[in-house]
Every structure is written in C-alpha cells, then in structure tokens.
Amino acid sequence: MSATDLPTKSAPGRRRTATARRPGTSALTYTLLTLGLIVMAAPFLWMAVSAFKTPQDLGASPPVWIPTEWTLANFRELLDLMDIARNFLNSAVVAVAVTLCNLVFCSMLGYALAKLNFFGKRGVLAIVLGALMVPGNLMLLPQFVMMSKMGLLDSYAGLILPFAAGAFGVFLMRQFMAAIPDELLEAARIDGAGEWYIFWRIVIPLVKPALATLTIFVFLGSWNNFLWPLVATNDPDKYTLPVALATFATDPTKAAGSNGVLMAGALLVVLPVVAVFIALQRHFTQGIATSGLK
Questions:
Q1: Residue from 116, 220, 230, 232 nearest 168 by CA
Q2: 80 falls in which pLDDT band (50, 70, 90)?
Q3: For the residues 167-193, what does the mean pLDDT come to?
Q4: Maximum mean pLDDT: which of 76-80, 158-162, 270-274
Q5: What is the dihedral of CA 152, 158, 163, 165, to 10 degrees?
Q6: Which residue would you say has higher pLDDT here, 91 or 12?
Q7: Which residues, in sequence order, are CB contacts of 236 under 8 Å at separation 6+?
Q8: Nearest to 174, CA basis, from 218, 126, 135, 217
Q9: Given pLDDT bands bounded at 50, 70 and 90, which one contains residue 286?
C-alpha cells in the first residue's frame, strides 16, 4: 500500500464522523435559538394580547395568555383619556426629522472623512471617535442650557436639533464609504463630475445598506427617547408619545386600574418601530453582513 492511498481511504471515515455530528449540533443550536426567541418575544406578546383583554382577564389568577373575549375597549378608553393623535404626531415629526437629518449630515461628514483630504481631517475623526465614548446622559445639562439660551424649549426645533447628527452615524457611514474603490471616484472626476454629483449619484446608491441600518437605529432611538423630551417640554401639546404615556401612567386620577389602557398605549409606541424594521429588514441584514466582511 502506498502512502498516497492512505488519505484517500481514511477520508470517507472522517467525512462520516463529521456528518454524524452535524444533526445533534444543529438540533442543539435550534433549541437554544428557540429558547432565546421565546425569552425575548414573550414580554412583547404578553403586551400585545393584553391590549385586547377585558379587565377580568387582566386580573385573572393564574394569568390568562389568550383572552377569553377580544375587545377594543382599551383603545377607545385610551383615545378618550389621552390626546393620543397629537402625541403620536409629535413623535412622528421628531423621529422622522431626526432620522432625515442624520441621513444627510452623517453621510456627508462620513464621505468627507473617508474620501476627501482636508486640513484637520485626523482631528475631526478623533473628535468623532471621542464623542462615541461620551455617555449620552452626560450631555443632557449642556443641551438643556443651550436650548434654553436659544429659546427653543417647548418646540420641535428643541427636540430635533440636539440629535440632528450623531457620532455613531458619522463613524458608520465613514466605515462603509471607505470601502468604495478610490479608482471609481477618480474615474468620475476625470469625466468631469463634481464632488456633489459623485456624492449623490455614485456614493449614496452604493451605501444603501448602511443608510438603512442608520435609519433603523436613529428612528428607534428617537422614537423611544424619553429623557430629553421630558426635560425639554413642559407643554402637554408638545409631549411625545413615550412622555405622554408615562405621564398618564403616573396620574392616579386617570391610570388607576387601567392596565389594559397602558398596554394599548405601549403597543402603539412599539408598532411604528416594528413597521420600520420590517420595511428595511432586507437592507439592514445586508448592511450587518457587509460590515462583518470588512
């Protein structure tokens, strides 16, 4: 028997061993993933079904998962007790405006840091990286003083401007744009294209996954932002949905014994975020996968 025959005869045995191990490994993986999914989804599912429960089902012991009677009374009561349309509009205006501002400004600065040469470029990048390390709550007082000096408290501008651009968005766009071949941009410059044309017509279409990823993160953060709108607004007409719901929950004259109403309000807070994620899921997944290859 020659030495060259040994790997050929032993290889099938190794392949059978590897194949024999895969079903057990796959079953364990799927089991763990399923358990993780249940742990993560259970609170959301409980909130969603509780929004349609009657007071009897909400107070049942042991707890009732599936309502014995589905009802929309909690939503009707929520509309009666809160100006939910106004609060929903405030949240939508602020979240959409903050998201659009981040998409524009973060992509522009990211492009400049990735593909342009200018004086102080390294210093700007160092500032962006340093800003990533600063806790957001630490900026609360300076932001409040600045908005107060500018007379922008209790206004949409006061809720939007402090978050119109973020260090995370700039760094994310910079990393994606750095992967674009310089030769592609140089060819466009040779053909007479200006920087604005290159940015909007060439670079932006190539970083759609990054834009979708940034959209989800920024919209989610802005929609769920509670602390800054609570500090920056005193007028109930300017309350965003999380602030209005928290104020309602702490008002004993309204929220006493109305757990179903609170669940209905919480469901309304969550649904827009879920809708945005579903709409951009494909691009978001592509963006995460692409970032992992760099």
A1: 220
A2: confident
A3: 90
A4: 158-162
A5: -50
A6: 91
A7: 83, 244, 247
A8: 126
A9: low
The crossing angle, in degrees rounded to 10, of helices 259-292 and 5-50 is: 150
User: What pTM was estimated for this model as a whole?
Assistant: 0.79
Task: Say how far apart CA 25 and CA 20 lie, in whole Å.
Answer: 10
Closest by CA to 260, choosing from 89, 113, 99, 56, is 56
H/E/C letters for each residue in the chain?
Answer: CCCCHHHHHHHHHHHHHHHHHHHHHHHHHHHHHHHHHHHHHHHHHHHHHHCCCCHHHHCCCCCCCCCCCCCCHHHHHHHHHCCHHHHHHHHHHHHHHHHHHHHHHHHHHHHHHHHCCCCCHHHHHHHHHHHHCCCHHHHHHHHHHHHHHCCCCCCHHHHHHHHCCCHHHHHHHHHHHHCCCHHHHHHHHHCCCCHHHHHHHHHHHHCHHHHHHHHHHHHHHHHCCCHHHHHHCCCHHHCCHHHHHHHHHCCHHHHCCCHHHHHHHHHHHHHHHHHHHHHHHHHHHHHHHHHHCC
CA distance linking residue 34 with residue 288, whole number of Å: 22
**pLDDT level of residue 294 (50, 70, 90 thresholds):** very low
